[in-house]
Amino acid sequence: AQRVTQPEKLLSVFKGAPVELKCNYSYSGSPELFWYVQYSRQRLQLLLRHISRESIKGFTADLNKGETSFHLKKPFAQEEDSAMYYCALAYAGGTSYGKLTFGQGTILTVHP
Amino acid sequence: NAGVTQTPKFQVLKTGQSMTLQCAQDMNHEYMSWYRQDPGMGLRLIHYSVGAGITDQGEVPNGYNVSRSTTEDFPLRLLLAAPSQTSVYFCASRPRQGAIYEQYFGPGTRLTVT
After folding, report:
1. Measured between alpha carbons, how far is A75 from B106 in angstroms, rounded to an integer?
2. Nearest Cβ partner of A90 from B42, B44, B101?
């Protein structure tokens, strides 16, 4: 069974400091990984996906298959980055095609 | 497009009551799903559907029923509400085809069972 683990429930940093939100996964197939974000009083939305190798709002995430990790990083945190962040893994085939498994979530707080 | 809509936004139930959480999407997405969000547990999949007339169980299906009579609507039914079902419920949809897998979420329904 696939599983996603986010070891930090809470993460606090000061504005301008680097931030890293950890995500580890277990999956027997080839993983499709995502980061979703939920800002205060807003709906959950996609931040980035590993397949696109993109940088969104200064965030990047690299898939490390050897360490089975997909950590989210930003070199200089901003106050508007404060939110709940979820790492998610999708089934890439079979009858469970498209199902997403989410981690427990990390609440990031960026202090001024 | 309104995207994914959910009603109601808030609901208080007494133990043993029943209700239906409504979800609709206007993006012609084939794939729809229901999640519950609980502190420390993340988002857990309750039920999902890959198209009209097709539904399947997710990780935590007990106590919930779903049906998918149209592409647009995917209601979630609680038959005998229990305090353990106090949670925030999110509906989501995505196009079935495509390798991107982005899901579009509704605004959520906050349910309290007393």
Report:
1. 31
2. B101
Token pair in block for residue B28: 């012609």
Residues linked to residue A36 through DSSP beta bridges, in sequence order: A46, A86
Using the structure block, give the residue that is written with the tokens 């106590």.
B63
Residue B36: both structure tokens together: 């519950």
Task: Say if the Cβ atoms of A86 and B99 lie within 8 Å.
Answer: no
Q: What is the DSSP letter of A64?
A: B
Chain A residues in contact with B29 (beta carbon < 8 A) = none
pLDDT tens-digit series, residues B21-78: 999 999 999 889 999 999 888 899 999 998 899 999 988 999 999 999 999 999 999 9
| CB < 8 Å from B in window 58-87 of A | 86
Q: How many CA atoms lie within 13 Å of A91's alpha carbon, on the beta-carbon side?
A: 13
Q: How far apart are CA B103 and CA B105, in angstroms?
A: 6
- The C-alpha angle with vertex A101 and arms to B55 and B43, in degrees rounded to 5, equals 90
The 3-state secondary structure of A55-101 reads: CECCEEECCECCCCECCEEECCCCHHHCEEEEEEEECCCHHHCCCEE
